[in-house]
Design a protein that fits this description.
The complex is a heterodimer of chains A (392) and B (195). Chain A is of the alpha+beta class. Helices cover 29% and strands 30% of the residues of chain A. In chain A, the strands form five sheets. In chain A, strands 9, 10, 11, 15 and 18 form a five-stranded mixed beta sheet that branches. Chain A has a four-stranded antiparallel beta sheet with strand order 1-2-3-4. In chain A, strands 8-17-16-12 form a four-stranded mixed beta sheet. Classes of the chains: A alpha+beta (392), B alpha+beta (195).
Chain lengths: 392, 195
C-alpha cells in the first residue's frame, strides 16, 4: 500500500501564547517545591550543618532539573506538531490517512470503517480497524479506537477543503456537518483570554519564590549594604575594623584541636572601646557561623566563643589558652587596666568538614534588624579554616 | 654502646622534665612579700600591702584552671581621731587585673560558709574600726594564673604613695596563644593545675 495523499490537513504553526502558560506553570511548581525544601531546611537548621548542606544541594538540583524540564518542554512542543501532517485523504479515494502519534506513524482507515464527528471544537475520528505498515514493510491491522484532534491545532482552510471532499466520497449517513463560523464562535467562547499575561505572571511568581529561597541574601544584603549596616568582607589579619563603639583588629588566627579532638579556631584580637557605654560587651558581640545569611536567619546556627573550659593541643600536650576572652565585661573602660583597650584570645568550636566560615561582630542580638542596632556596622568576615596557620 | 647512650639520654630527659614540674608548680603557691610606702585614706587610716599568695586549696569550683589570689593588707588606725568610731576599712587598697580586666572578687562568688573558714577568713570588709589598732585583712580575687596578672596598689591615689603596678605574671609566648616552655607557669598551663 502506497502512502499517497490528497487534500492533506497540516497542523498549524503553534501559537506562542500557549508556551507562556506552560512555562508559567513549570516555574510556579518549581518555586513551590523550592519553598517547601527551604522550609524543611529551616526546620533542621542548627548544628546539623550536613543537613543544611544536603537541603541546599537538593534545592539546587530542583532548580537545575526545572530548567531542564522547561528546555525539554520547548523542544518537544516544537518538534511534535509544528507543520506536521495531521490527516489526509488517500489518493485512491478509498479511505483516509491519520497521524496516530505513535512514532508519528500514519495509519490508513477505509471510509467504510470510519466515522468523523465534530464535538465542540474537536474533530473525533472513530474507526473499527486501521492498517499500517510495520518496519518490515508488512501490513498490520490496528484495533479500533477514537482519535481526537483539536480544531485549533490544524489549518482551518485545509480542513474546510478536506471536509468538502470527504463528504463527496463518503456515504450519505457518514457526512460531516461542518460550519466554520459556528466552530470559531465556540472556540472564542471557551478560550482563556490573556494567556500570555497569566503565563508571565505565574513565571514571575515562580522565579521570585526560587530566588528568595535560594538566594535570600541577594535580596536582603543589597538593602543592608546600601546603608552601611552590614559589611561582608574577607577576614584580613592586622586590619582595623571600625564600628561606632569600638575598633578591633585580628592579629593572628590559628586552627587547632582541643583535648577532646574537636577542631577549634583561635583569634588573637585587639579591641579598643570608643564609647562610654557601660553595657559595652565584646564577648556577646562575637560569633562564628558557617552561614553567610546569619542575620536574615535571626542568628540560627551562630556560635558564641567558648569559655575557659577547653585546653588546646600544643606540641601534643593539652595546654591552657592564655588571655582568653571569657567575660562579658572585658574591655569595658571602667573595669580595664588600660582604659578600654585589650588583646584577647577568642576561641570558637568549628565544624570539621567546612572550608568556609564567618567571624561575625554584631552590636546587638539577632532578633532585631541590623538597621536598628546602636552599634554599626555589623561585620561578617569570611575565612577558610583550612588555610589558617596550625597551632604548634 | 648506642643502646646504652640512648637509655641514658632518655633517663636524663625524664629526670630533667620531672625536675621542672616539681619546682614550678610548687613555687606558684609561695607567699610573695611586697614592700611599699604606706598611704592614707581620707579618714587618716594608714594602709600597706604586705604580699600576695595563690591558694592551693580551696580552688574555684567553676574552673579547675583558675585560682584564688589573696593580697595581704594591713590597716593602721593610730592616727584615727577618737571620735570617728564609725570609720570603715577601705576596700579599694588594691585591684587585680587578669588579662587587662578587673578580676572577679572572691566575696562575690564564694558562699559565706566557705568565707568563714581559713584561708579565706580574712577576706572581708571591716566596719566600725577602733583607733590605735592594726587590722590585718585580705583582698581576694579569682584569676587564671597563666594570664597576664597585674596587681595595682593604691589604684585611687590616696595620699602618700603614687599608685603602683606589680606584674605578678607576664606571659612568655611566641604565638600569643600558649605559653613558651620557658615560662614559669608553662607546666601549670599544661595541666599542672590538676596536681
Amino acid at each position: 500500500m502506497k502512502r499517497e495523499y490528497q487534500n492533506s490537513v497540516f497542523f498549524k504553526k503553534e501559537d506562542k501564547k500557549y508556551y507562556f502558560i506552560g512555562i508559567g506553570f513549570i516555574f510556579l511548581l518549581c518555586g513551590i517545591t523550592t519553598h517547601l525544601l527551604g522550609s524543611l531546611e529551616y526546620l533542621y537548621l542548627g548544628d546539623q550543618d550536613e543537613v543544611t548542606w544536603f537541603y541546599h544541594e537538593m534545592m539546587m538540583c530542583c532548580v537545575i532539573s526545572s530548567i531542564a524540564i522547561v528546555l525539554i518542554f520547548f523542544m518537544v512542543r516544537k518538534n511534535r506538531l509544528n507543520k506536521r501532517l495531521a490527516f489526509a485523504i488517500d489518493k485512491s479515494g478509498q479511505g483516509i490517512w491519520l497521524n496516530s502519534f505513535v512514532n508519528l506513524k500514519m495509519i490508513f482507515i477505509p471510509f467504510s470503517m470510519l466515522e468523523i464527528d465534530i464535538v465542540h471544537a474537536s474533530i473525533i475520528f472513530k474507526y473499527k480497524h486501521a492498517f499500517y505498515c510495520n518496519s518490515r514493510g508488512r501490513m498490520v491491522v490496528k484495533k479500533g479506537k477514537k482519535e481526537k484532534i483539536s480544531y485549533q491545532l490544524i489549518n482551518e482552510d485545509q480542513f474546510d477543503r478536506f471536509v468538502k471532499i470527504y463528504n463527496l466520497m463518503s456515504d450519505q449517513d457518514k457526512k460531516v456537518d461542518f460550519d466554520k463560523a459556528e466552530i470559531n464562535q465556540r472556540i472564542s467562547k471557551y478560550s482563556i483570554k490573556h494567556l500570555k499575561g497569566i503565563g508571565t505572571l505565574l513565571s514571575i511568581i515562580g522565579i521570585v519564590m526560587i530566588t528568595y529561597n535560594l538566594f535570600p541574601l541577594a535580596l536582603d544584603s543589597v538593602q543592608l549594604n546600601t546603608n552601611n549596616v552590614v559589611k561582608y568582607q574577607n577576614l584580613k589579619l592586622n586590619h582595623t575594623y571600625s564600628t561606632s563603639k569600638a575598633d578591633f583588629k585580628v592579629n593572628k588566627a590559628y586552627v587547632a584541636r582541643n583535648e577532646k579532638n574537636q577542631k577549634i579556631v583561635i583569634f588573637n584580637i585587639s579591641f579598643k572601646e570608643k564609647s562610654q557605654d557601660d553595657t559595652f560587651n565584646i564577648f556577646s558581640n562575637l560569633y562564628i557561623s558557617s552561614d553567610k545569611n546569619i542575620l536574615q536567619e535571626q542568628g540560627t546556627g551562630a556560635k558564641p566563643p567558648v569559655r575557659h573550659s577547653d585546653m588546646v593541643m600544643s606540641n601534643n600536650h593539652p595546654t591552657a589558652i592564655m588571655n582568653q576572652l571569657t567575660n562579658e565585661q572585658y574591655c569595658n573602660k571602667d573595669l580595664s587596666a588600660s582604659g578600654g583597650t585589650g588583646t584577647y584570645n577568642v576561641v570558637f568550636k568549628l565544624s570539621d568538614f567546612k572550608n568556609k566560615d564567618y567571624l561575625v561582630y554584631t552590636g546587638d542580638n539577632f532578633e532585631v534588624h541590623p538597621k536598628s542596632y546602636e552599634e554599626k556596622p555589623t561585620y561578617i568576615l569570611k575565612f577558610n579554616p583550612n588555610r589558617l596557620e596550625v597551632l604548634q | 654502646m648506642k643502646k646504652i647512650t640512648l637509655v641514658l639520654l632518655t633517663m636524663m630527659s625524664i629526670l630533667l622534665e620531672s625536675g621542672i614540674v616539681l619546682a614550678d608548680t610548687n613555687s606558684l603557691y609561695d607567699l610573695h612579700p611586697i614592700q611599699t610606702k604606706n598611704f592614707y585614706d581620707d579618714s587618716e587610716i594608714e594602709y600597706k600591702v604586705t604580699g600576695y599568695q595563690y591558694l592551693k586549696d580551696p580552688v574555684p569550683l567553676t574552673d579547675n584552671k583558675a585560682r584564688y589570689l589573696i593580697i595581704h593588707c594591713e590597716a593602721n588606725t593610730s592616727d584615727l581621731s577618737k571620735n570617728s568610731s564609725d570609720s570603715i576599712i577601705n576596700s579599694d587598697v588594691c585591684k587585680v587585673y587578669d588579662c587587662g580586666h578587673e578580676a572577679v572578687e572572691i566575696e562575690d562568688v564564694v558562699p559565706q560558709k566557705v568565707m568563714k573558714k581559713q584561708p579565706l577568713k580574712n577576706v572581708k570588709s571591716i566596719n566600725k574600726v577602733k583607733p590605735n589598732k592594726i587590722y590585718k585583712f585580705d583582698y581576694g580575687v579569682i584569676v587564671y594564673p597563666y594570664d597576664k596578672i597585674i596587681l595595682k596598689i593604691n589604684p585611687y591615689n590616696f595620699q602618700g604613695l603614687d599608685s603602683q603596678k606589680i606584674i605578678i605574671h607576664a606571659p612568655d609566648s611566641k604565638n600569643g596563644i600558649v605559653l613558651n616552655s620557658m615560662d614559669s607557669l608553662a607546666d601549670y598551663a599544661q595541666g599542672g593545675f590538676n596536681k
